[in-house]
# Entry
Amino acid sequence: MGNSILVINCGSSSVKYAVVPNDPAKPRIAGLAERLGGNEARLKGIDTHGTPFSCSLEGANHLEAMRAILERLADQPLLAVGHRIVHGGERFTKAASITPAVLRAIESMTELAPLHNPANLVGVQATQALYPGLPQVAVFDTAFHQTLPPKAYRYAIPIRLYRQQGIRRYGFHGSSHAYVSQRVDSLSERSHGGWLIAHLGNGCSTCAVWQGKSVDTSMGLTPLEGVVMGTRSGDVDPGLHAHLGRLGWRLEAIDNLLNKQSGLLGLSGLSNDMRTLEQAASEHHEGATLAIDVFCYRLAKSLAALSCALPRLDGIAFTGGIGENASAVRTRVIESLPHFGLRLAGKANTNTVGGKEGRIDTGDAERPEIWVIPTDEEGRIAEETRRLLEKNQ
Ligand code: ADP
# Structure
């Protein structure tokens, strides 16, 4: 039997995978099947010899993509498979071995994550069909936030909606926030303290972590709540929905507008990609300049608000494609929080990009620290899968 964990992240139009060896020094095999369902569907990644590859999967659906991926991994010595499952509701507070009952529970949460949970389940079913003897583990995006207290997770709406429909704040990006907070806790001398984490990728969220536990986070019932994202609006006046409804908008159109056409893309009228926007803003593009302004300001507001959940602020950690690379965004956010006593070290900030990990504040012992921690969601999912297997032995 092998000792690597295959991590599968089956999204609404893509499947990401990684083979994570037990020894962190060994290289990972990883890849991505994207644009599934369309003519431009492709599978690309790094093969078993470390060579990049890319091939067409024209018209392939999730199941076919999973088959193509698993065929490529046929000679891998696997111990188990860890699946990223977006919504675990209140039932899953940690990773779970996949059994028929667990599958039914994930399916029953489809209403809470209509785009994600069904796609996640396709990944599980395809892997089960192709690797029937291999243990499969579900690792939930929501589980890390199950430690939120009611004052952080309840909406100020009638209690029956919570009791009967499970309407509450759940939070997402759990594997990333868990990994980054644990990592920063281990690197900093102020171990086991209070941290604010900003995960800034295509989806963005913030999280307050106290002594290793999530105590508040910016995403809510769905991954739409909170800060400005690539194409998601983040917080808007909840009255906007009724307003648009009265103007004749259908529910699906409102949902599509706020999830797919808003955020950086909607504000800039140009792109959802921070690199494109930074370039355009440097050439005085008005929309791009405004989009970055709103993004940074809202992010700083979210971090300030989440600081209320912490008895003490030990520092802030940035992660995700934007958090790990856009040093100008980090500068803008920190400048908007002067009353927190944060101070960036200019050079360390501009040098800590491209997947580097490091501390980027001036090092004053009395000030909160600032870190860049490249996230490792696959590593975290593999670790949780391994831990569960060991416990069950
Ligand atoms: P996902 O959430 O899909 O995993 P990523 O974490 O890769 O996404 O983040 C994607 C975002 O990171 C995009 O907005 C992209 O423009 C941004 N990004 C990546 N590299 C840079 C860079 N060098 N400078 C600014 N933004 C960057």
User: Anything to note?
Assistant: The pocket of adenosine-5'-diphosphate is lined by residues 201-203, 230, 273-275, 278, 320-322, 325-326 (CB under 6 Å).
